[in-house]
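I'd like us to work through together how a protein chain folds, taking it slowly. To get us started, please write out a protein record for me. Label the sequence line and the structure token line clearly, so we can match residues to local backbone shapes. Once you have written the record down, we can walk along the chain together.
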Amino acid sequence: MFSRVLVANRGEIAVRVIRALHELEIEAVAIYSTADKDSMHVRLADRAVAVGPPPASQSYLNIPSVIAAATTTGCEAIHPGYGFLAENPAFVAACEDNELVFVGPTAEVMARMGDKVQAKAELKRAGVPLVPGSDEDVASSSEARSVAADLGYPVLLKAAAGGGGKGMRIVRSLDELPAALAAARREADSAFGDDRLILERFVAGPRHVEIQLLFDAHGAGVHLGERDCSIQRRHQKILEETPSPGVDEPTRRRLTDAALALGRAVGYVSAGTCEFLLDDRGEIFFLEMNTRLQVEHPVTEAVTGRDVVADQIRIAAGKPLGFTQADVASRGHAIEARLYAEDPDAGFLPATGRIEALHWPAGDGIRVDTGVKIGDDVSDRFDPMLAKIVAHGRDRGEALTRLAGALDATVVLGLTTNLRFLRWLVREPAVTSGQARIDTLERIWPPDDWPDRTAIPAESWQAAARLLGGGWRLNGPRSLRLAAEGEEQTVSPADATEADGAAVVSGDVAHLDIGGRSVAFRLAPAPDVDRAARAAAAHAHAGGSAELVAPMPGAVVTVHVALGESVEVGDPIVTLEAMKMEHVVVASSPGRVTELRVGARDQVARGQLLATIEA
């Protein structure tokens, strides 16, 4: 067994791997960027080494720096976690060149399976059912048009070199294709350093089901059952569970047989996952093989009792698997919810801020994997996932009940998260019934009465006034004017009350937990002369004017218009990028662009004015 292993990642997965190493009595070496020097994974590791250079988001992708960190600290192996370099064959080759063991498959197998173009050819030869689509990179707009015309719209653009929803676009018509191609290429290049795309038929309304595999270097291989990952937003998973409520035993056998056959055919070694689409007719279509640990591995661990990370490490050290398929048993049901720093009310756009208060749930069957702590700054440089909250029960009903209770007990104050949304989601009939498909969320979110359900109650305004009013000192102001979530209210001393739920004051801001959402209350600013002038100018025109503001913090990728240009509703104005995902800000009304406040490569804050359109 290894004595020292470098963990080439950050956040919750770095913490998870470090804990597995410690349980195996292996010394863990962490790496960190300038932004992560005081992070949880750095504190937990036995040693830590800085990697670079800036920007921080690129530090963990710097292969020479990561290799140097491992060799100078005497590590024998590198565990990549997921994301960053986890599916980069060049990194695996660099490990081999420096006599370091990569905890994962060989570079050759990774290249064959991790590259969707090569993988499709391999799978076609093996007879695995595939979604119809291009066999090669769609290198030009004309080629994409031709393939899409043959397949019929809608079609799906996908990054050839990676997954996780990055570089992916649903294209519903020919008119949408050029812009979707450009955006998907930029996103793929930013996330994976490879802008190649493939184009497939869009399969409407299937389940997303995956099979967890383990293969050792001695020819033994097993599956650990399936996971259902159908509940997604922006092609990224939110809830995952095992077993799937939509998979019967014959279908399970077809899925696991196909996955095991593929693993054996390519000589796979390590933990890996085969992903499939399952339609209502029972047809299965292979999507891709993830040649790494999956985010959602904890639900599999909960029902099988296996430590998948420890199994990975033992396999990398050359140990035999040590058990057979007959030894794998599934007990009960497990469901995982991903807690993200994002705003579901604003299209699930990333959110940033400082964690001012934090409370994780505990209890029977509850597990929390996280890499954040109070005082951490959550930026737009990295993936927005803060934690995974997992519930295990004797059956699906008990697991859902436990997960709902765990989410109710979770508190995160200081920045916007999807916690309130998750509390709603796990109680929705589409979820509790087990009937969710990959397009379910598009159909049920947001519910019609969401604005009424989520209105800030009077008692929260009153509690914020008490927190910000300094105890209503003698000769103090007779009332306070507060601002929160785009609203303003005046509260008098007589109405001020204690906060009913979690609350914290940081500087001049009171953060209150309102149904799972961290709401920031401030003293309302004095009237803004510029804004008032713009509002007056808007009233002077028949149609008024529209201000376009940044819906999220990030970098300006493209400004699509020029000052004085005429635009129509829906025309792209500015494209922003945050956490390697792009978002297009479009014109909300027709008119002429009278203000442009940003240019390409500018960094913007959420709410910052981008442009003004005058009717």
The longest helix spans residues 249-266. Confidence is low (pLDDT under 50) at residues 538-542.
